[in-house]
Amino acid sequence: xxxxFDEYTDFIPCFPAFQKAVSRPLPVHVRVNRxxxxxxxxxxxxxxxxxxxxxxSERYRSFFILDGVDRPGNLPEYHLGHLHPQALTSCLAAVxxxxxxxxxxxxxxxxxxxxxxxxxxxxxxxxxxxxxELVPARQSPLGHTLARLGVLNAVVTGYQAQEFPLRxxxxxxxxxxxxxxxxxxxxxxxxxxxxxxxSRTALPGLQKKIILRGFDLLAEGGVMVYSTCTYNPAExxxxxxxxLERRDAELLPVTSGFYQEPGLPSRNGEIYDGKLAxxxxxxxxxxxxxxxxxxxxxxxx
Length: 301
Ligand SMILES: C[S@@+](CC[C@H](N)C(=O)[O-])C[C@H]1O[C@@H](n2cnc3c(N)ncnc32)[C@H](O)[C@@H]1O
Description:
Strand content: 15-25%
Bound molecules: S-adenosylmethionine
Helix content: 25-40%
Order of helices and strands: HEHEEHEHEHEHEEHEHEEEEEE
Radius of gyration: 19 Å
């Protein structure tokens, strides 16, 4: 087998198992949208039509795997807004941020909107979510996602996240930043090399600006989740270190209920910060989904 991601052999645990996992296609995960439907009803409806549905975890009763369904976007449940195709690890971002009902929430990089809608569900359609997306061509799909899923508490804005106006402060912020996207590189066909769907360009300069602006937009006591779908420490631990060196930020533990590895305190002689053990790395041989990174950050006061 050829070597994928061989530059990461030093920190990805059980590397041969990791390589095997990325040479398998991604499973189809869906999240039942409780703003519009109850998981048991949606699942029994699909089962009655012969669709193989499995619950991912007893703890998270809205997350399912569909076996043998290549295009969940063609299901009637999708068009009704009863479910949303969303990688399991991507679903964990809203869970870890846990925005409270009636709070003020900012989603700095929101399109296509799966996490925005999930946060709305956790907030029971109360409070306010500002769903920000820079790229105009992605704002319209974002609006469609929110409308289809019955989101009533969100407005869409189009600022550069790193220059989002400092006029208002937020209780919860999601910084699900643009990244090299390596975590989504999986084989299209079993046993093949992972397909590279997007460029693998790392974006640490932009990410460092966004994490600083996100922190500055937090109300006192507010919480931000910084997340990426890449394994690259330059886009993960180094970005969080950039924040820790410049602001009085506290790293809170990430508790997902799934198999997670701690963030890296150092790598190849580069020290990040011992506190990064509180962050979480998700690998596809541990959780069969998109590779993911999350840090949960609190602003004191
Ligand atoms: C990782 S994706 C977000 C995925 C989204 N949170 C979801 O769950 O559906 C990053 C998004 O940031 C947008 N983006 C890129 N540069 C940006 C910037 N400077 N400010 C705000 N958004 C940006 C991209 O167009 C992309 O839609």
